[in-house]
Every structure is written in C-alpha cells, then in structure tokens.
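Fold it.
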Amino acid sequence: MEPSPVPVAKRVPTERTHHGDTVVDEYAWLAAKDDPETIAHLTAENAYTAARTAHLEALRAQLFEETRRRTQETDLSVPTRKDGYWYYTRTVEGQQYGVHCRRAVRDGETAPPISADGAPLDGEEVLLDGNLLAEGHDFFSLGAFDVSPDGRWLAYSTDFAGDERFTLRIKDLSTGEVLADEVPDTFYGTAWSTDASTLFYVTVDEAWRPNRVWRHTVGTASGEDVVVHQEDDERFWVGVELTRSERFVVIDIHSKITSEVRVIPAANPTGEPAIIAPRRQGVEYAVEHHGHRFLILHNDGAEDFALAYTSADAPGDWTPLIAHSPGTRLESVDAFENHLVVSLRTNGLTGLRVLPVGGGDPYDIDFPEPIYSVGLDANPEYRTNEVRLRYTSLVTPDSVYDYDLVSRQMVLRKQKPVRPGPDGRPYDPADYEQHRDWALADDGTRVPISLVCRKGTPRDGSAPAVIYGYGSYESSMDPWFSIARLSLLDRGVIFAVAHIRGGGELGRRWYDQGKLLAKKNTFTDFVACARHLAKAGWTAADRLVARGASAGGLLMGAVANLAPDAFTGIVAQVPFVDALTSILDPSLPLTVTEWEEWGNPLDDPEVYAYMKSYTPYENVAPVDYPAILAVTSLNDTRVLYHEPAKWIARLRAVAPQGDYLLKTEMGAGHGGPSGRYDAWREEAFINAWILDRLRRA
C-alpha cells in the first residue's frame, strides 16, 4: 500500500494586493524557517519521498557504484605554476574533499609534475585539507583560497551551513599557524597588497547583496578593518580581485546592465580608489591591466562587446583595439606580458583568439570536434608565453592543455580519467555520438539543441530521453562531460541540452530576447525543442523527462503549466517557482538586483501582469501534470526552500491526481550536498527517479 501525500497544516491564508490585484497565498506560512511546523512539514515530505522511492534503493546503489567505479578517486590536478611553486589539488579514495597542496619548482623543471596514480608529489606541502576542516560538519565549502604574492600567507574562508556566509582566516604557510585574524560573514572575493601586509575582502548586506569592500591589516583584529567602498545603490553589487600583473586591486561594481570599476595600486593599499569610467546606465565594462594600459571590454555602442584600452596612469578616453562584430560575443580578455587572449563565442560555440603584442596578426585557436566547450584555466603568471586551457565535449572528458602562444603548439597535460564501467570495458568516446540539431520556435527563431547518445540508439521515437535547460542571466549551457551521465546513455537514454533564449549561447541579443517582457520566449523555446525531439524521431513525448535547476527550475515549472503533455516527468532542482512573490519583496536576498533581469513588479503594473502570467506557483491549474520531483535545500540563500515546498503543496491541492515529490536537504545550500560522495548519491537519486519514470512510460 502506497503512503498518502503529506497533509498541509491549515493556516490563515496570506493576502497581498498590487496594482489592484489581490492574491491569496494559502501556503505562505511555509516561509517561516524557524517555525516547528515548517520543519515538521519538510521532514514529513522527505519521509513520504523516501517511502515512494524505496523501490529504487537497489537502482540508486547501482548508479552510485557505477559513478564511483568509473571515477579515479585518488587523483591529482595538473599543477599550475606561480613563481617558485607548483600548486595543485589532490583527492583521496574514501575522502569527500580535496587536499590543496604546493611543491617547489625544481631546477630545469618546465613541465608540470604529474603522478599517474594521483599519489602525493615528492616534497609536497599541504596548504589546506578540506577533509580535516570538514570534520564534525555535515556541510563544508571553501569560499576564498588566495595565496599572497610573496607565497607566505593563505587567505581562506569556510562555510559549514550552505548559506554562503563564510568565515575568513589567514594561515602562515611558513609555520602552518592559523593567525588570530578572523572575519565572520564574508562573501567570495579577496585581494592581497603587493607586500602582503593587507588583505581586501567583501561582505554582504541583509538582502545578501555584496555591498562593501574592506581592508584588513594582517595581524590585527577585524574590528579595526576599514571600509574601502560601500555601494548604497541596491541595484549594484561589488567584487574585489588582484590583477594578474599584481599591480592593481580591482573593485568591480555591477548591476545587471551597468558597470563601474575602481582600482587601487597594490603597492599603496591605503590609497583612494580611482574610477576607470563613471557608471552610465546600460553600459557594461570590465578591466584588465596590461603594462602601461587598462584593457576595457565593453558594450558602449557594441551589443556583442568590443575591446579598447586607456592609460593606466591617467584613465580617460578609450582607444579601440577590437571593433564590435555582430554575432561574435566577446566575453573576457586575459592579459599576459606579450599576448592577449580573448574568450569569445560565435555560432553557439566558445573560442579563444590570441592577439600578439607589438606585432603579428590575431589568430583563433582551432579545435577538432563540431560541438565542444573551451576556455582558459588558471593562469596566474603574467610573464609567460604559455597558457593553460580546459577543453571538453559531450563525449570528451575534461582535458587540460598547455598552449604555446608563440609556436602555437598544444600539449595535452591530462584528460580526466574514466575507468571501466560495469562491463569492464574501458571508456571509448567512439561508443557514443554527439549531434547538433535545431528546433523552430513559435516566432520562427531557430533554437540549437546539443545531443549525445550511445552509438546505434534508434531514431524511431522509441528511445527515452532527458532534455536539460536553463535560459537566464546570459549563462550558456555549453557542452560538458559527465561520468554519471554515462549510466543513462548506456541504458539507451538520449541526453539533450536546449540552448534557449535567455542564455548567452548566440550572443547578447539571444539573452535580451529571453528576459524582462520577453521572458516567455525562454519557455516556448524549450517546449519547441521538446516537441522537435519527438517530431524528429529522437524520442516521444511519453518518453521524455525535462530537467533544470535554479532559474532552470523556474523553466521547469513554467513548461509544466505551458505544455504538460510534452513530458512524462520533470526534475526541478532548487527551483525558482514562486518568482513573483520573491521579486515583489525587496527584503529578500537578491530581489532588487534582479529587477533588471525580470522587471520590477512593485512599480510597473505591466511587469506585474506579465510575471503573474508565467510564474509557476501562480499558474498551477487542474490539469494532468507529468510526474514532478522537486529537490531543494533548507539553507539555500539564492532560491529559498519554501518556493518548491509551496509549489508542491499547491500542485497536490489543485491537481491531486498527479505524482509530486519534494526532497529537501536539511543541511545544505544552493549547490546541494558538498562532499563528492554525497553529491554522487544525490545524482544517483535523481537519475534513478528519471529511469523509473522512463520505464513506466
């Protein structure tokens, strides 16, 4: 006998009125995180989900074991050179977290030292062992990990709850002593002064907006720290970093559509920050230091961005370096003494363009596969003619290359090992095939889809499939390799990624056409991709599961309402499904900074009506929904746990014939469980549910 769905405690509904519209929220009380009834409800939901999925326990164990078996658990990253040391991270079989190490560079050593079996390098120095730090905690995450320019100090920060409130500490690497300096409630981002006497860091306001940059003197109490910049405009957030040249501390100030950058000479950490260019509404720019100039990547009259420069001594007018080219989105620039490397994307693919300094024509680095993802990896040294890059595709494991910018020779340093699967056969990319297909959206726009499947998978509509999507914040879902995904592919499942509007795959316009009052394009694009997969014979609607997370979880809720017949199941992880309620509340984390992404429904009745017409929680209807699995985390500060909790409750009330499950991590944050084995178990849980849905179809 199957367990009954979790009853929802009866509370007085909450009413809100905006622009003459009154909304009743029966489940608003679930937002009270400290209410014992809330915790009891989430606990009961977990118990119900566990009971409903108990028959999948053996499959979950099998999927976990397949991931573990295929993973080289004791492994070592390719060491990165910085001054006189090689820096790297090791993992050890049976341990959840990485061990961060360094080893001195030896005479005549030019290539990074690598141990084939992942064993420690001879002469290594352990800087930080995540397993020791995590002892006694259910969750552990590193925020900062920043070695000072002289190699003596390590600034690091830890989070043991998942709420991304980090405690910052400083370790003396010469003695192993952790200093008394301790700063609670910090955010990501640190920067050292040249002499390593001063550390800059960031804190957040009550709405979780990074709003202050601080200056800390090593060896003093945090109460003596000085605010270097405070951002009072609630649309903007701040970050801090040290340039690769180690000449300047950069304070980045951004809203969704406007930028301002200030710099402090790293040799004069108490100096007043100088503005590169005052903020102008709608103008975004980023700064990289290069010799006598600052490089400026900007969109001033350049939709897909252009590259310019200005004087480092007296920033002023911008001199063009790379003109705007519509359709080629310039994403970032990395400066080295003799070369610039521009990361870009065109025709839906990432790429790298090299600009020799002082002569020589620019050139693009070529890559062999039709679908891939490439980008620069860690490159801390400024005076170098060699760069580290990372390459992957849907069938190619993560690969680390060193590229000589002069000879144009590329050397593979390491490809992520994939050990034999359950059948004992080594992994062979030739056993799989990847494709690029295109769907036609309602307005005639062609939407790219990336697909991977086992070779020989039928194209007659009989194959089961998973379609993944995101479509927000100009974040691109570029092809990536996944060991856990092999367990699906080897069971005949096709995996597809819908590159829908709202992402950045096809440039800035692709993003602009999926935000604000064009947001519904994101949802209709995804439905068009799903229907195309069925029409083209890749799969069938009753053999297709949709999956998305965070803003991709909003996508999942929206398409569930828009086209419930297009899917047999939906996985929504940390889903932003009560978007209107959240964006109406300026006290919630991120709300005000999000208004330039979604619109401001508080002040604009058109935005209010538009958001209300698509936000998932508001539009639950008495229809036949596909089976839904919602996964969330109690300590998530980005998408609060109560959004999916309320959504599942309303689905059960309005469409009670459906199959809805809620799983809440009671000690994690936005990214879910922190340890690698816990993350593998979470993925095994989701994939077992997906396979079960596909079997039932």
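The first helix runs from residue 36 to 52.
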